[in-house]
Amino acid sequence: MTRMNREDVTEDALFDGRLKILQPRRGYRFALDAVLLAGLCRPGQNDEIADLGTGCGVIPLIMAFRGQGKFITGMEIQESLAKLAAENVKINKMEERIRIVHGDFREVEKYFPAEQTDLVICNPPYRKVKTGRINPNEEKALARHEILANLDDVLNAARYLLKTKGRLSIIYPATRLAHLCNRIMKYGFEPKRLTIIYSAPGEGAQLVYLDSRKGGGEELHIDPPFFVYDGKGNYSEEMKKLYEKNL
Fold first, then answer.
1. Domain ranges of the chain
2. Residues 62-116: tens digit of each pLDDT
3. For the whole prediction, is pTM greater than 0.70?
4. Domain made up of 6-241: CATH architecture
5. Which pLDDT tens digit goes with each residue over 38-51?
6. Is residue 85 a contact partner of residue 123, using CB atoms and an 8 Å limit?
């Protein structure tokens, strides 16, 4: 694959420059929730992993850099982002660990065999189309709003992909936790581990990380609160850890 026009992208870096990430200069750029999801999901060393809506491929890249999982497939519906993700895999020399698929996970059966995946991760669109201002940038709008896909589409794809007892890991707004749990259980998943994420001590919850198991038994572990900042404007020790190679 030839490189994209450098005028349209920026080259950013993680892990002290050891991992390079090309991102759209004006389109959808990965945010803190991608780093949170990559750090909190704790994949098994031999896991076959699928990232639904991979964007520029940042989560598979972080996992592969850390040596997590056996093989990671990132799926992205937006062609421009899928091409960028594939380029990121190439420039980081991770072709043997990561595959990028340009496709729609609402038609996941066209691209993947059923029940062969150990872990599905997703940072799904969570804003309803009729709530809030839709970003005029198409890449950002499709990534953040339920325009092309919603939570039910994610859960349906995950149910198809995962082996029995396979895991689904999601970052979602704290204000929609009840909705998330309701939908997850309807699709045959059992919530197993919940991390409530706060911007800083004394502030309300912003996000939740929820790990669920396909066909799992009833038992939910709630982690200690996770603070992104320490209250002084600096990253907390927990957040700093997520930017390290060894968790």
1. 6-241
2. 999 999 999 999 999 999 999 999 999 999 999 999 999 999 999 999 999 999 9
3. yes
4. 3-Layer(aba) Sandwich (3.40)
5. 999 999 999 999 99
6. no
